[in-house]
Design brief:
The complex is a heterodimer of chains A (about 260) and B (about 350).
Chain A (H helix, E strand, L loop, with lengths): L5 E10 L2 E11 L4 E5 L6 H8 L7 E6 L2 E2 L5 H7 L1 E3 L12 H9 L2 H5 L7 H12 L14 H13 L5 E5 L7 H15 L13 E5 L3 H7 L2 E6 L2 E6 L1 H4 L3 H8 L5
Parallel strand pairs in A: 3-8, 3-9, 6-7, 7-8
Antiparallel strand pairs in A: 1-2, 1-4, 4-5, 9-10
Helix pairs in contact in A: 3-5, 3-6, 5-6
Chain B lengths: L1 H18 L3 H15 L10 H26 L8 H18 L3 H23 L4 H21 L1 H4 L5 E2 L8 H23 L2 H11 L1 H5 L5 H27 L1 E2 L6 H14 L5 H16 L4 H18 L4 H9 E3 L6 E3 L14
Classes of the chains: A alpha/beta (about 260), B mainly alpha (about 350).
Bound molecules: adenosine-5'-triphosphate (ATP) and magnesium ion.
Chain lengths: ~260, ~350
């Protein structure tokens, strides 16, 4: 049998006295889209940073396709096929948008894949086109709006050709119209939509989001974090009816 | 014959369509011409003292540009850049003095030794950022001066290693060799910053964590920046040793490390051309004011403060923005008097 796609076991992380992640177990199959929700400060971003190797867990293991991820450098993890976006966008502000993506296109994983005749500029343009900001390719990143910055984050992440994509609040700060567009892009990406001929099958995803209505349309499964602990894990319809989730996060009104 | 005329026409067209349309390109051409024709220029050219000043200017221009490559582009603030210069100078001097390797061998080998020094220092410094990095790098050349004084028999102590071979017999030929090396190396450095590699280096300056999450091994790229910068600075040091025929502790001094920072900030960091231009303005100026010993440092300080107050990005980027404006549509630069973009004909404001 194949090794599990993503297997998080007994993950713990404390900041001083604060337990941000508390004994988290997540098991994920390939091609699954997982929603990760929870109140502010629940530890969602921290979990993503742990997977990416930006932070080191105190204990626990994260296995990606059978290989241990914990303890590796961030760039190694990216080259194993995991990519993420930042919740508070971190573009290279003084570089043009296309140059922002060209950095990702130069990682060894992206260099090995795709049509080798294609120049890096062209590959970067593909990613920008997918994210829908190719018309602004030459603009400086500092001039972008909130929504376009989110798109830039997505473009930078998919340019590394991930098999697992971690999106931290892709709809955060977007207008309803922009949110719809972004949701469509994400669906298209998962279906293996046109991003060159590279993603014949789309990447698996973990999506952190507060906008539940949009999220429910995209995901197959939802994991709920509260104070660093998983309080629910299951199909979206079940999770929103779960007593504990309503109490901790959704409030009486439901979705 | 026709072929020659054809190529002449082509050259002329390129000149007209690509070079003359942009003031900054014209300035670069003029700069190349100035450097190459300097020895035959009236007043400056006939004077051996002036020739000497401009030879040193060329050497320091390489040095300043190499600082910009590491500290400007990659953002690894190095306040001990004299280390590379000094190691390059001492290595070239030792190789020439003891094993009689001629300058064309000793200078590149000396520069490679400087690269080695860069790696040895770079590795422990990689974890440091900002002020910590700056202070740590400041210490290394000082430590090396201590080593120089500790082995006076081998390294010449306070007096340095003298009696090194000249680059060339004649002063003018020495100048030409150094000037052409300067133009070549500076062009290479500019090409590096303008390449795909340059984008990664610039991105590391902006946000290192984000570069890592893009799957780039930032450690490797930072070491590469240390090595490249060390190589170019080492060449400058080697040229200095062979031109002055001495490699002394002054090549490692703190003041030299600071000098390069001041030059670069004055001319505009993250541009390569800024520091080069600054050296060509400030170094001769300071030398010519030598007769006015008390006033010159004060005036120097005033000029720099004024520049920093009114042109925070440095003199040359400021000038460039005055004479050229960017097309809002295609981002190509245009002469400031133009109404429409020369490439995409969009209206310029
Ligand atoms: N580097 C850090 N140092 C100390 N505490 C931290 C650090 N990063 C996060 N925390 C704390 O860990 C907890 C979890 O933070 P995290 O950012 O993961 O929350 P989140 O679920 O992403 O919240 P939000 O929905 O607001 O994005 C918070 O209480 C936060 O203050
Ligand atoms: Mg968060």
């Amino acid at each position: 049998m194949d090794a599990p796609f993503l297997d998080i076991k007994g993950l713990d992380k404390s900041f001083g006295g604060l337990r941000a992640i508390n004994n988290v177990h997540i098991h994920m199959a390939q091609k699954e889209v997982l929603g990760l929700i929870g109140p502010n400060g629940a530890g969602k971003t921290t979990l993503i940073r742990l997977i990416m190797g930006i932070l080191r867990p105190d204990t626990g293991s994260v296995r990606f396709r059978g290989k241990e991820v914990v303890g590796r450098k961030t760039w190694t993890i990216v080259n194993m096929g995991i990519a993420s976006t930042f919740q508070n966008m971190r573009p290279f502000r003084r570089l043009p948008i296309i140059a922002n993506v060209m950095v990702s296109c130069q990682c060894p994983r992206a260099m090995k894949r795709g049509e080798w005749v294609k120049k890096i500029e062209a590959k970067a343009m593909d990613a920008l086109e997918f994210a829908g900001i190719s018309d602004m390719a030459l603009e400086d990143a500092s001039t972008l709006s909130q929504g376009d910055l989110k798109r830039l984050e997505v473009a930078r992440a998919i340019a590394t050709e991930p098999d697992l994509l971690l999106l931290d609040e892709p709809f955060g700060g977007l207008s309803p119209a922009e949110t719809d567009l972004m949701a469509k892009s994400i669906k298209r990406l998962h279906k293996g939509g046109r991003f060159g001929r590279l993603h014949s099958e789309g990447p698996a995803m973990i999506i952190v989001e507060h906008k539940l209505q949009q999220l429910m349309k995209i995901v197959d499964r939802i994991v709920v974090l509260d104070f660093g602990t998983i309080i629910a894990d299951g199909p979206p319809e079940e999770v929103v009816k779960n007593e504990k989730v309503i109490e901790a996060y959704l409030g009486q009104g439901g979705v | 014959m026709d072929l020659i005329i054809f190529y002449f026409r082509k050259l002329f067209t390129i000149l007209k369509k690509e070079v003359l349309v942009l003031p900054s390109r014209v300035v670069v051409i003029l700069f190349f011409l100035f450097v190459l024709l300097l020895p035959v220029l009236p007043v400056i050219g006939n004077d051996p003292y002036m020739l000497r000043i401009f030879t040193l200017t060329c050497i320091y221009a390489i040095f300043a540009a190499s600082w910009d490559l590491l500290s400007g582009y990659t953002g690894q603030m190095n306040f001990g850049h004299a280390l590379f210069f000094g190691v390059g100078a001492y290595s070239a001097a030792l190789l020439n003095h003891h094993i009689h390797i001629p300058p064309w061998g000793s200078i590149p080998i000396g520069a490679l030794v400087a690269v080695l020094a860069g790696l040895i220092i770079g590795i422990p410094c990689l974890r440091l950022k900002g002020t910590y990095l700056a202070l740590t790098t400041l210490a290394f050349p000082i430590i090396l001066i201590g080593i120089v004084f500790a082995f006076p028999d081998q390294l010449g102590g306070e007096l340095g290693i003298s009696g090194i071979e000249r680059i060339a017999r004649s002063k003018v030929i020495s100048y030409y060799i150094i000037a052409i090396i300067m133009l070549g190396l500076c062009t290479i450095m500019w090409a590096i910053t303008d390449s795909k590699l340059g984008i990664i280096l610039h991105a590391i300056r902006e946000d290192e964590i984000a570069v890592r999450t893009a799957g780039i091994n930032t450690t490797r790229y930072k070491l590469l920046a240390f090595s490249l910068s060390g190589f170019f600075a080492g060449v400058a040091g080697g040229l200095y040793a062979h031109y002055m025929r001495i490699a002394g502790p002054s090549t490692l001094e703190v003041s030299l490390s600071f000098q390069v920072v001041i030059w670069s900030i004055f001319g505009g960091i993250v541009s390569i051309y800024g520091p080069i231009g600054a050296v060509f303005v400030l170094f001769p100026l300071l030398e010519l004011l030598r007769f006015w010993e008390q006033g010159r440092t004060l005036m120097f300080a005033c000029i720099i403060i004024l520049i920093l107050l009114y042109m925070p990005d440095g003199l040359f980027p400021w000038l460039r923005d005055k004479i050229e404006k960017e097309c809002p549509r295609c981002k190509k630069r245009n002469f400031w008097r133009r109404k429409t973009c020369r490439i995409c004909t969009a209206e310029l404001d």
